[in-house]
Automatic annotation (TrEMBL):
TM annotation in the entry: 25-43, 63-81, 88-107, 113-136, 156-173
One Pfam family, short name: Cation_efflux
Protein name: Cation transporter
Signal peptide start and end residues: none
Location in the cell: Membrane
Family matches, as PANTHER family: CATION EFFLUX PROTEIN/ ZINC TRANSPORTER, RE54080P-RELATED
Domain Cation efflux protein transmembrane: 26-202
Gene Ontology CC terms: plasma membrane
Organism: Hydrogenophaga crocea
Chief location of this protein within or outside the cell: membrane
Amino acid sequence: MPAHCCDHETPKVDAILNLRRYRRILWIALIVNAAMFLVEIGAGVQAGSLSLLADAVDFAGDALNYAVSLAVLASALAWRARAAMLKAVSMMGFGLYVLGAAVWSVWHGGVPQAMTMGAVALLALVTNVAVAWMLYAFREGDANMRSVWLCSRNDAIGNVAVFMAALGVFGTGSAWPDLAVASLMAALALHGGWTVLRQARGELGEDSAKEDHHGHVH
């Protein structure tokens, strides 16, 4: 009998320990992303780089996402799904903003500073790879956890792209590589946001179905 009880208790203990570990990782990610936002916004303005500014806005969005995730971590599935929908909309809004800024820069932008772009992109890449590695174990969770993982993964991909853009700007003396990468980052944000939004809507539908079922039972 005691062994049978332990079989039921162990998953609960594991779940509590995983939740604590996840919360600790989210706090680290929140602080790191807020710090990188300040670094990149300053570097982006100084270097005149749209892809760095786009990455800075992305870091700010991620810091907000981690804060929302922490706020609803122990909430019911429906509330976590609603939070994921809010984050998905913010990701898609970021994508649309960057696309608009890229179009504006075609006619009004100058050539960014490649060396600053490359150095900051490398720093951001190391930061995001570290955060993505910590979050990797939670990538198959609910829509809220998935949105956090997708943000970190997309950031790491975006940092590589910004570094490649810096090489392109340096090699061509043109702003086009910077604009192309900024547009790519916008596309990633739109795709990631839509993926999370679709999953969150599905989870809300499942939760509503369960509530209806319980209502009919009673």
